[in-house]
Structure formats: C-alpha cells, structure tokens
Amino acid sequence: MSPGKTICTAQILVLTLLFIGCSKKAGDEIDFGTLSNSVYRNEYFGFSVTLPKDWSVQDQQAQRRLMKKGAQLVAGDDQNLKAMVKASELQTVNLFAVFEHPVGSPVAYNPSIMAMAEIVRELPGIKRGKDYLFQARQVLEAGQIQVSFPKDYYSERLGGIEFDVMELEISVRGKTIKQKYYATIQKGYALCFIVSFTNDDEAASLQRILNSITYN
Predict the structure, then answer these.
(1) How far apart are CA 143 and CA 76, in angstroms?
(2) What is the pLDDT of residues 103-120, one digit of tens each?
(3) Across the strands, what pairs with 149?
(4) What distance lies between CA 206 and its chain's CA centroid?
(5) Would you state the pLDDT for residue 104?
(6) What is the pLDDT of residue 103?
(7) Quick one: pLDDT band at residue 3, thresholds 50, 70, 90?
(8) Tens of pLDDT along 138-164?
(9) Segment among 35-44, 54-63, 118-127, 131-140 with least mean pLDDT
C-alpha cells in the first residue's frame, strides 16, 4: 500500500462494536439526513450542521467504502475482530462524511469530519458517551494499528448537548494523525462525530464546523 493510501485509510478508523442478538437494524429506524445549501439536517436526532461549501461531501456508497477500508485496517488478520466488524455493520448508520479535499488528492493530509449512529438500546451498560467510547477503545487497542490515547475522556457541549470526547493519535510513516471522537446517547443510539487532523490549523477548521451544530 502506498504512503498516501496508508495515511488516508488510517484516518478513517471507525468505532466497531459487537452487538449480538439485536432484533432490529439501525437503518430501519433512522434516516440518513439531508444536505441542502451546505447544511446537513437530521430530523430524527434533531440537529443541523453547516459544512464548508468547498469541502468534498461523500455519498452513502463512498461512505460505506471508506468505513469498510478503515474497519479492515483495524481488524487485519484477526478473525474475531473481523466478525465484530461484520456484526456492527448491521447496527451502524453513516450520516455524513466530509473531507477538505476530494479523496485521493495530492495533499500531505486531508482533514475530515464524519458522523455516525450505532444502536445501543439493548446494551444497558452504555448509559452515556464515554461508556460507548470505552468499548470502542478496547476494539481499537486490540487491532493491528498502533493507537495512543494522550488524555482521559472529557466532555464538551455541541449545540447545547453534552458529548463525551476521546482523543487518539495514530503514527503512520512518520506522520501523526490525530482524531477526536465525540459521543452522546440519544434515542437508544450512540451519536458520534469524528474529526481527523494533523495540525492546529486543521483542528481549528474542524472546530468551526463543530461549533455550527445546532439542535431544534
């Protein structure tokens, strides 16, 4: 795999949990949301977010490809993790994914923000975002990618709603990729925003997007 593809794939590590015995698929309940005039809206969760007009929005098919690549990178040859990834696909809805540049562009790094929701209502131990992030961390630490966690969980408010935050760093070919996972529990789902960046300027651009989140 080329350095560019390795870095691109590493940045899309996803939250992959095993939910056995859930009787209903996530996609049977919630919608993918709508995008109009650079504003993404999701009626089910009641939020909207303004996305930069010149950033590259991924359609549902592209999102599924990206998530599949990221999950494969996490699982590697571990058959147990592969099974976990497969099971989680039925419980996860990709809401949106936006990159600063079209995927594959000749840039040193391509900052991104993604949103996803995973059904957790049949897991009573997951009461808030950090409970979900704890489980996600276990999966990431068991994967083949070397991931570090520079600080403990903390909380931030997005659109007036409290989200728990997990920070992680991934070293790929001499470059440190940073990610922040924001998670909250709403309507039996873990609603997550994931931002990926390498420097303060990229982080500031992504923070402006997060600051645009509003709830009805």
Answers:
(1) 7
(2) 889 998 999 999 989 889
(3) none
(4) 13
(5) 84
(6) 83
(7) very low
(8) 877 876 778 899 999 999 999 999 999
(9) 54-63
- Cβ burial of 207 (10 Å; 0-12, 13-18, 19+) is middle
| 40, 56, 189, 208, 209 from 212: Cα distances, Å | 11, 18, 22, 6, 5
Is residue 111 a contact partner of residue 196, using CB atoms and an 8 Å limit? yes
Give the helix/strand (H/E) hosting 202.
helix 200-211
Structure tokens at 140: 């990431």
Cβ partners under 8 Å of residue 46, min gap 6: 215, 216
Give the 3-state secondary structure of residue 192: strand
Measured CA to CA, the distance from residue 27 to residue 40 in angstroms comes to 18
Residue type, 168: L
Distance of CA 200 to the CA centre of its chain: 20
**φ and ψ at residue 52, rounded to 5 degrees:** -60, 135
Evaluate whether 152 touches 173 at the Cβ level (below 8 Å).
no
